[in-house]
Protein 1
Amino acid sequence: MNFNKVLENMKIYEAGKPIELVVRKFGIKKKNIVKLASNENPHGCSPKVSEAISKISDRMNLYPDDSFYELKDGLAKRFLVKSENIIIGAGSDQVIEFAVGAKCGKKSGVLMAKTTFAMYEIYARKMGAEIFRTPSHQHNLNEFLEIYKKHKDEIGIIFLCLPNNPLGESLDRRDVYKFIKQIDDDTMVVVDGAYQEYTRYKDEKKLIEPQKLLKKFSNVLYLGTFSKAYGLGGMRVGYGIGNVDIILALSKLRPPFNITTLSLRAGIEALKDEKFVQTAIKDNFKQMKRYEQFCDEYGFKYIESFTNFITIYIDRDSTEIFDELFKKGVIIRNLKSYGLNAIRVTIGTKNQNDLFFKKFKEVY
Ligand SMILES: *Cc1c(COP(=O)(O)O)cnc(C)c1O
């Protein structure tokens, strides 16, 4: 069968491998498997969220409130913006899809770092858009600017992933502002802040807030998610914050009821328990130190991380290390497909990290 030509250049997104697969394949007991592959919050989510959700389990017959009034109101208060500046997506992933759909096409491509979130490229290719990447793996704004100046008329969206998944680096806010000032109003700059809650804790200079972006720039779309620090990856709730005209354009592409009644409630309640989030973030960086010490002790290079995972360069074939760990029930990410001999490990709980260190020593 012939399919849409754009599919020819597209690869299927490689999601973190699920625990269930390791159970089926190797017969390892669930409790002996650790998944440190998708940057989920290892502490789960706020108990207030679970409680609120169980209370509405008899409401499945009704569609959710498609205006998402309460969730937008909660986000608007959190970020000191207006509800009309917010769009809700089934994960911020879906907001990326809306943005690319609203802005890109054959003559309007995307610019991004060489190694960054894979979905930017997938959605861009779907629109038949051209992909421009910087030579450096990590974000280098001089390189971004150079390419932008050369191909101004061919670039519809610039993606800045701060902190960057899968490498963990981030940029100082001042440099980001300086960069965006040099971009035309008609080019959208997407600041993907999926991990900004972590950055805020680690280094205030790198904190980027949507309300500040909104005040300064009319062409910026900020993306946030409940999947990471809030521990709601399974619920699929994310959001975009930007100028009203951007939000209205993206809204034309939003299917009705794009998040579920349960997801909606989860997001609303999650915003009310900041303490849960902060406790988890604090533990994340405490555990991160152990990874840094581990790397120093064994002589592995790593990228300083401003988020909830760490990228470690391996001096052997990273695929081999990945496969061996996988067989032992430790699921991480192999970065070979990005052209890096490295692994990305999500920071787990103390016990999960203990298991990683133990198994890593065994296989290495
Ligand atoms: C996880 C992630 C997202 C979106 O996740 P959703 O679960 O779709 O909200 C977006 N950008 C980056 C960089 C991510 O790591």
Protein 2
Amino acid sequence: MNIKEMDSTYIAHTYGRFPVQLVRGKGSLAWDEAGKEYIDLGSGIAVNGFGIADDQWLQAVTEQLAQLPHASNLYYTEPCAVLARMLCERTGMKRVFFGNSGAEANECLIKAARKYAAEKHGPDCYTIVTLKNSFHGRTLTTLSATGQDHYHELYQPLTPGFAHIAPGDMAALKALAKTTKIAAVLIECVQGEGGVVPLDKAFVDELAAFCRENDVLLAVDEVQTGNGRSGQLYAYMCFGLEPDIVSTAKGLGGGLPIGACLLGEKVKDVFAPGDHGSTFGGNPAACAGGVSILSRTDDALLAGVRERSQYIFDQLTGAEGVESVSGLGLMIGIKPTKPAREVVAKCIENGVLCLTAKDRVRLLPALNIPMDQLQKAVAVLKEACKG
Ligand SMILES: *Cc1c(COP(=O)(O)O)cnc(C)c1O
């Protein structure tokens, strides 16, 4: 039995995998079992922010693995404290809760918002408003937060307490506020799984003003947009927001599972010992990797992200077979005239790995992808969009 057969025999069929078996990688290059080389424009879905097995990240993680790979949250360890301090100093947020995934970061965000709102405004203040076409995770509660019906259908009944409005529809939010106490509004600044769609700046401004005026928490899901991907450290910074709660994950760990919920001034003391927890949360090896990644996500790196972004937009906007290009920083969606999945298949054939999101080809390259590799990969993608 080869690996592909073994996988489809023994792994639950939750993923529609591309027909590629990856065995190793370095930076923005990856190789399959036959030794074929690929340029990676997906980064394990925005996880390998500095590429695969980045040397400095690898050193930080392996040193920590040899020293103390896991403790428990009953003891103090250095990497999580250092990473939490870095996150707070870089964002102005006040405290951090660590979990292991984006969904777990959002679970914490939702719990924090509910607890804060119930204590401050009463037990009937629990509704969290999210946007249609959003994506917040796969646990039952983050699925309930997700504003896409097709994710809901199979798993009724969902967690109550969520309402969804269309991006841009302030009237719907104001109408809802007349009948329902709203605890928080949760947004992605760029809807990733929803097709790489940035929110409109004017709408985001109005939303932030509404939250301020009505003492509603403003929460931002930076799981995919965060950690340099947008061209700023967090995408909310591109929109000039001051959120009360931020969740992040994917790229923060540089390749190991991590999630973080950043609590701002209002909610910093919402949790007391025993209120929330996670066995692996704040894992020393994952956090040591995070410290390595975050300490190098500096102005020079971010300038490089914006430069690479501009290159991709310039190359693909108006190219043959390309209807439109959307996104922010190195989170880019390309709407081809033919089905996105066909374009991705053609790219794989020609040694380039990219993703899809809805009807778009989605690019999430490493933030430091070498320019020559990016140029080669974009040329392959352009060719794949033609005809
Ligand atoms: C990927 C993603 C999640 C879920 O993260 P997991 O690590 O898969 O649980 C949540 N929100 C957004 C915006 C994401 O892109």
